[in-house]
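Consortium newsletter contribution from the modelling node. Members have asked for a concrete example of what our holo predictions look like. Here is one, prepared for the guanosine-5'-monophosphate complex that several groups have been discussing at recent meetings.
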Amino acid sequence: MNHSLSIPALTEDLSRVLIDADTIDRRVNELARKISADYADTDGTLLLVGVLKGSFIFIADLARKLSVNHVVDFIALSSYKGDQSGNVRLLMDTRENMENRHVLIIEDILDSGNTLDYLIRNFRTRNPASVKTAVLLDKPDRHCVPITIDYLGFTIPDVWVVGYGLDYNEKYRTLPYIAEMFPQA
Ligand code: 5GP
Ligand code: MG
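And here is the predicted structure:
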């Protein structure tokens, strides 16, 4: 891919590029190859469930590199930040039925783990054939709940990151790279 003509510059909020676009692309390719191999012999169509909004670019890139049949669906949640109880609320459910299907949750970033913990428990009540997770970024220092990530993009330090789907107050979601923000006041 040639990004050389139009790489958006860092603004004053952003301290550095943590993962550049080519590195992301190569890693997403590797994940897609692994996922395609792992699901090659399973029955039925793989159901990808992207967690809105942060995963929309990751799921778009990943899905287009898969060589197994799949359908794309989305779910929207809200979490109460600053609330240590880990309360997660369902804002929009999937449209697809999960019964007897292989489900792969596509998430942008694993922080406390509350979101994925909620989703995995919720999906398991729907009698899927399997539930696995693909997560682009993991902040292991922040976990409060143990979560198994089946397909992980990158491990990152405990910093706020934006770009490639991730935002800060809805800004920076469509940056082609993942950037680290300066700590906000
Ligand atoms: P968890 O439930 O694991 O604490 O939180 C996961 C969600 O928190 C992610 O899906 C994302 O929406 C948000 N989040 C956590 N860390 C970051 C970050 O560094 N940048 C952005 N943009 N979102 C984050
Ligand atoms: Mg998310």
